[in-house]
Amino acid sequence: MTGKVDEALSYEQARDELIEVVRRLEAGGTTLEESLALWERGEELAAVCRRWLEGARARLDAALAAEEAGEDAE
């Protein structure tokens, strides 16, 4: 479950933090509890990134549809 803080993250901020989480998990040396917390945070950050990318895709699709509709009207 993501919080209001996560919703305020930009795509780049979420991506960079996710990269750091993955780096820490791959490096090892954390307890099981720390690893689980990192994994959960990674899932939250991935969801934030996914929402940003879905929003970007929707905006692109809308812009392309509007452009196509304008061409059809000519």
Automatic annotation (TrEMBL):
It catalyses: Exonucleolytic cleavage in either 5'- to 3'- or 3'- to 5'-direction to yield nucleoside 5'-phosphates. Coiled coil: none annotated. It comes from the Bacteria. GO terms for biological process: DNA catabolic process. Pfam families: Exonuc_VII_S. Keywords: Cytoplasm, Exonuclease, Hydrolase, Nuclease. Its EC number is 3.1.11.6. Its main location: cytoplasm. One of its GO terms (molecular function) is exodeoxyribonuclease VII activity. Belongs to the XseB family. Heterooligomer composed of large and small subunits. NCBIfam families: PRK00977.1-3 (NF002139), xseB (TIGR01280). Bidirectionally degrades single-stranded DNA into large acid-insoluble oligonucleotides, which are then degraded further into small acid-soluble oligonucleotides. This is Exodeoxyribonuclease 7 small subunit. It comes from Streptomyces bungoensis.
